[in-house]
Amino acid sequence: MVPNRWTPCALADVTKWSSGGTPSKSNPDYWGGDIPWISAASMRGHYFSSSELAITELAVSEKAKMAEQGTLLLLVRGSMLWNKIPVGITTRRLAFNQDVKCIAPISTKLDIYFLLYWFLAKENKLMGMVTGTGIGAGKLDTNDLQSLHVLLPPLPEQRKIATILSTWDKAISTTERLIDNCKQQKKALMQQLLTGKKRLLDDSGKPFVGEWVNVAIGDVVELFNGFAFKSSDALEMGCKWLKIANVGIGEIKWKDSSYLPENYQSEYKKYFLKVGDIVVAMTRPTLGNQLKISRLKRRSDESLLNQRVAKLVFSDKVSCEYMYQLLSTIEVALKLNSALLGTDPPNLNAKVLHEIQMKMPPLVEQQKIAAVLTNADQEIELLEKQLADLKQEKKALMQQLFTGKRRVIVDEKEVA
């Protein structure tokens, strides 16, 4: 059922589409100018005004493809399409390549910001339309896109919908910046506290004193390796099965979950992971100079430990939370990378990790340091949950606004 005063139409009826191009790379006079040239690599966010590559006025004069300010750019070819649909509005006149379509309203009944959010609301549908090119890239067929149907509310209502959603975007951006700031602050704290450059106060209110001592990680940590469960034992549901792909940097990732029979939890009791356990990837153990190490934070993370993932078992001489923070540092990852250089795939073994030497304070100071850094982690986790909630709420709101299930109130002045 079409909402009152809304008009159904095909996208082709209200928009004009044009294709981009690439000026000859063999002509240096076309490149190095100040006119942005948008390609997939430049399509970050939803507003485009700059790019890594830029062209000259000469390239424009010789028919480089241009998009006017206030038009929409949509990526229609590239490997990025398998993961998301890059789309956004140009905030200045610029050029774009052949993998991108420029979409401009041809009707006064269509607001460009409404169109942007309409595309964002349809991302799942668009991703379902992506087909392969035979060389690993994805593509969207222009005719299929233009035949998509859109429900157009009156222009004032379109603008109101876009304004509401832009408010959500601002809240999301603000939260993302807060997360980035908290992560940078935590990184700085780790550099100071885990090296002894900054000493915390003891229970009497005085700074900790005394020299830290060199300790081999193997003296305080043991690796307990997972079990080689059979792939044939896998089920659609059951007890979660923690594999190497599930271990990220500071997080357990369950996007691709596997399961084993529920009775394995008791049958393989010593391999069952519980909240608070810390695991590390044993194959390709580092990424971007960080160790793939994570703590099980919630009951839903509890799972059976697979081979090539190890649980860390700590001696009572150290704080396990302190060691978790210490093993998460760039310094540890760099030492591991150096030891694993030349192995393919790089595999972590107990000997490599055990031989790494790190300066450590006494247990009481470790516990104080761990408490500060754990609090920083919890603050980041709280913000990340708020961000996920905001994104989910915005997604649900878009579905309601673009179907007319939820109508917005438009001031009479706006209608006039």
From TrEMBL:
SUPFAM superfamilies (UniProt xref): DNA methylase specificity domain
InterPro entries: Restrct_endonuc_typeI_TRD (IPR000055), Restrct_endonuc_typeI_TRD_sf (IPR044946), Type-I_RS_S_subunit (IPR052021)
Superkingdom of origin organism: Bacteria
Any one biological process term the GO annotation gives: DNA restriction-modification system
Coiled coil region boundaries: 366-400
Domain Type I restriction modification DNA specificity: 4-180, 211-392
Entry keyword set: Coiled coil, DNA-binding, Restriction system
Keyword DNA-binding listed: yes
Molecular function GO terms recorded: DNA binding
Similarity field: Belongs to the type-I restriction system S methylase family.
PANTHER family referenced in this protein's UniProt entry, alphabetically: TYPE I RESTRICTION ENZYME MJAVIII SPECIFICITY SUBUNIT (PTHR30408:SF12), TYPE-1 RESTRICTION ENZYME ECOKI SPECIFICITY PROTEIN (PTHR30408)
Protein name according to UniProt: Type I restriction enzyme S subunit
